[in-house]
Amino acid sequence: MSVASSTAAKLVHQIFDLQRAVRCVAAANLRGEDTGVALQGVLRFVGEGETRATRLAERLGVSAPVLSRHLAELLEQGYVVRRPDPEDGRAQLIALSPAGVEKLRSIEAQRAATLQAFLQDWSEDDVEETARTLKKLAESLRSSARAKTAGSTDTTTFVEE
Q1: Strand segments (E) across 40-87
Q2: Rounded distance, CA 148 to CA 141, Å?
Q3: Bridge-partner residues for 88, per DSSP?
């Protein structure tokens, strides 16, 4: 099944509009927060389970120095902990601290409440259908990017979100 060029262009436009809207909502909700959007993204991925810093940088699509700065800030705030990787003494494993778990729960609850308020005129079916469609889109983009990366000699990798 093939998608027409004009249809793909419409989808690209809608994705950019969605990104802008999400950024605006996120910025409005960050007033007074000690963690910005970038740090919240790091918390979200660390919250999926203990992982190596290098893997975390790949998943986030950031360089090691950028991740290192984010982790230093989160460590200072007490939201993450590090420990040596028992399989490779040179590597470190990153995990949420108990305070980080609580912070992530708070962030996710606030985001869900904000979205819930914005979607008051949506039905439960509308939301579920949108979630399924966005999941399908993300999976298609990730699998296509993985295929390209697997056949590439480039050292950059695509990051899952």
Answers
A1: 51-52, 80-85
A2: 11
A3: 85
User: Which one-letter amino acid corresponds to residue 29?
Assistant: N
Give the integer Cα–Cα distance in Å for 34 and 76. Answer: 11
User: Quick one: which of 143, 145, 141 has its CA closest to 157?
Assistant: 145
Do residues 43 and 74 touch, judged by C-beta distance below 8 A?
Answer: yes
Place of tokens 């579920």: 128
* Strand partners for 96: 80
- Token representation of residue 36: 């910005």
Give the Cα separation of 71 and 76 in Å (integer).
8
> Rounded to two decimals, what is the model's pTM?
0.73
Q: Which two tokens stand for residue 42?
A: 């790091």
What is the β-pairing status of strands 51-52 and 80-85?
unpaired
Cα gap 12→6, rounded to integer Å: 10
Main-chain dihedrals φ then ψ at residue 82, nearest 5 degrees: -120, 150
Kindly report, residue by residue over 40-89, the tens digit of the pLDDT. 889 999 999 999 988 888 888 888 899 999 999 999 999 999 999 898 88
